[in-house]
Amino acid sequence: MSELETMLGLVLLVSSLCFWFVCFSFPSETPLKKSYPSLKKKHFKRLKVCFCVADAAERAAMIAVCLISSARMVANLDSEYTSYSAQFLVDNAGRKNEPAQDPQPSTFTIQDWLQYLVEIATPKPESEQREVDERRNTLTLKDCLEYALKEGLPKHEHWTHVGCVHKPPPFASLIPRVPMKGELVEAKTWEEASKLLKQQPVGAKLHVFSPEFELVRDEGFYEGPSGPESRYVGLRDVMITGNGRMKGGPFLEVKIVYKKKETFLKVSCTRVLTSLPNDSGEECEVEPMGLLVDFIIPRFSK
After folding, report:
1. Backbone phi, then psi, for 52, in 5-degree steps?
2. In 3-state terms, what secondary structure has residue 121?
3. Do the Cβ atoms of 242 and 252 come closer than 8 Å?
4. Is 171 helix (H, G, I), strand (E, B) or coil?
């Protein structure tokens, strides 16, 4: 390799390193809402910055790592609240046809980096991009939690920025992961979820209707659709942080980011949905269900 090629390779190497580390930057921290015996208020709001621009995969991953961080602290596996990487789950969870982050050699050459730069600069074939989009659109909170328990997770500072669209560089496979030994516990009813909530925050999905959701202010009471003008938006991942009772009946308090706005809402536990629109927009009968469904927590063991 000539001296000029070597210099060019070094410049590209430094540039790509700088880009990747800037892309994987730290999100801001703001305080959380409810408190558990070993959780402080600041921990529930670690979703805020990088969660605000999230797609479905990023929302699921962010909820997953918040649940994991909370559960590990409650179980005294972490001496302090430790943030884990949501981007790692976005990049890897839900893959069906290939192992995530194949083993790589322990050293990398300039040629390796040049090849990496060519790969991220080359447009993906339409079929490959479609596969990536499909995986991201269908990635669920449960997928993320299952993958974390199976493969472990890097800490947040080692694999950070949620929203980076570029393939991780080759050395990413060498980043250490924290083993996650445990199981997933699911609940079907809000009463069961309330019991789990006594120990740690609970993940769930919320049926969102417009304009009712937009009209509920922070700390407000959300009761779902109010009439024929209501439009079904879909399911959104949330973290349940508390419960209680008021004039409208029992509620679960949830944390959600919707349209780039972070909100705590009190969600009615008594409202029952008996119909939802199908893909064509036609109203169809469904099995009676509440506004909150698919309750789940990770439970860790030492």
Report:
1. -70, -25
2. helix
3. yes
4. helix
